[in-house]
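User: I would dearly like some help making sense of a protein record. This is the protein in question:
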Amino acid sequence: MRVYLDFNATTPVDPAVLAAMTPYFSAEFGNASSIHSAGQRARSSVEHARESVANLLGAEPAEIVFTGSGTEANNLAILGTVAPGATKRHVITTTIEHHAVLHSCAALQARHVHQASEVTYVGVGHDGLVDPENIRRALRPDTALITVMHANNELGTIQPIEEIGKIARAAGVFFHTDAVQSAGKLPIDVDRLGVDLLSIAAHKFYGPKGVGALYVRSGVPIAPILYGGHHERDRRPGTENVPGIVGLGKAAELAAHHVRLDSEKIGALRNRFEQALLETVPQCFINGHRDRRIPNTSNFTFANAVGESLQIGLDLQGVACSTGAACSSGAIEPSHVLTAIGLSHDYANASLRFSLGHGTTDAEIDFALSVIPAVVERLRDLAPAQPQPQPQTPPQPQQPHPTKAVSVR
């Protein structure tokens, strides 16, 4: 049996999504910017997809900008909001953001000295949650943007976005959230969250790879980061990826109808999986907040083991999981998310992420539970002895500093 427990890395394309996309690879191949009938049919399909994505997010269709990925959506939100020449150039973010956000902030800092931005990195608690009051304390008169992810890709922790949204609104500061891991797993309403910009990626909720979207609240100015034609209302040039956009739209339709029911089912499976591991594997613990998480995600530390070896050992036994973000595979350093919540390098490097999906079954969970304890025990026997935490009890990490400001000025 092969069991896939890495749905946070990517998901399979839903058969209904594939069926919706297929005509646009062949018979309906028109350019959505062409004025003839083939082009206009493509345009109609793109706009229908825009409506579907807007419906998923509680937005207006004109507020949806199609991009090539969630990473591009994050880049556009950050670099497009704090554009060269902006009078306000201070950005607030957290230490556990996806690299698409962290590296975009670093790019702002690396600009020419007279246009460089200053970025404040707000720390999180050992549960992976940011304190909204630390965001409030980081505000300055020149703050242009707050960017805090909705749900963390490694821990699954859900940040207090509504509270931060109120803080941003009261201060007159634009607010962006990376919702790549929450879209399709949690109900989303941009007005309730209080965000001005929100990023999603199709392949995280059973759509195709290579397409994403950025919600831009009406009236929020944003400069393009690519240059060419006048596509996407001058916000994202380039010939539209019609098959991908159609797939994103269909995936959004499916998610809008099934998100609550799927979350309950997957959450029950995840909880059973976690409880069984805590009972059968000594000296392991769950990272992140136990309750404020997206329902499909578990991040475990298996003390006195090496996460990469565990991942390989489990894969050889038929269980696919992750040591962290898929974008960071091959990295030598431990996960920045796990060290940000206070784990030592040894504990961070002894961690695995398991993420469930629509297709996960009870039989697959049972199979994974039959494999994992033996693989952990075998690899621990091969590892040098290390001090161990109490069984099922996470170590108490030091609280990180509330904020850290970095500038190249």
User: Anything to note?
Assistant: The chain has two domains: 3-7+259-382, 15-255+400-406. Residues 242-280 form the longest helix (39 residues). Residues 3-7+259-382 form a domain with the Aspartate Aminotransferase, domain 1 fold (CATH 3.90.1150.10). Residues 105 and 119 are 7 Å apart (CA to CA).
